[in-house]
User: Fold this.
Amino acid sequence: MVGGSQLLAGRRALNIIDALSLAPEGLSFSQLEATIGVSAATLSRLLKMLLDESWIETEQKGLYVIGARMMTVARHLSGHWSEHEIIEPVVKELAFLTGHSACFARFANDSFVLTTKTEMPSSYHFIELYYKHSILHDNGMALALLAHQDPETARYLLEEQVNDSIEDYMALLQKIQREGNHISHESSVTRIAVPVRHGIGHTVKGVVAIAAINMDTSDTDRCLEAVRNAAFEAERRLSTSGETAREAG
Assistant:
């Protein structure tokens, strides 16, 4: 019986992915409930599972859409280059150029995930790829991503994690958005993050970032310039065809 229940849950999860693949603009909870034909409680559990694994995501209006992990699989199977494959050479070059671990991170519902990383020996080690990290207020990459989300969403997520200083955080997010980068110092770790824009309205797809242990302050400007250049290169590659990205890599 347990095996049968798991099989049924798996089929329902695939039904959700199928439904979202036919609705690129996204579907609401109520639309999915009517389409899949399950109770609200069952649908909530299925959606949480798919969100946690980045198979689906929610966009700014609260609609459910296909997630980064599913898009990577789809592009690979269709012969197109995935976001990871396009950006990976940029991240790798950034790591070797600066001597610090580098990554590309995306916002994911109420968390953030890494979709590409290159870690340098004796340097900072990131969380695993596609692992959802929900602590946002004390992570430089997370704040750089949060700065480009809807302000109401950002405020709501921060209020869940901090008891005071909300206005200070909101002011910091505005500063990050205005300056186009974020440098944070967390104990012995320095993070430098710059947004990557692509698509309609040049929306922020994620951030390119480095994380360094005991970074020399005199090296900050050089590393910031390198991260900016990497973000620009990531934007350029995302705007080209998969074949062009292959040649550039």
Observations:
- The chain has two domains: 2-66, 80-248.
- Strands lie at 56-58, 64-66, 101-108, 111-118, 182-186, 189-198, 203-213.
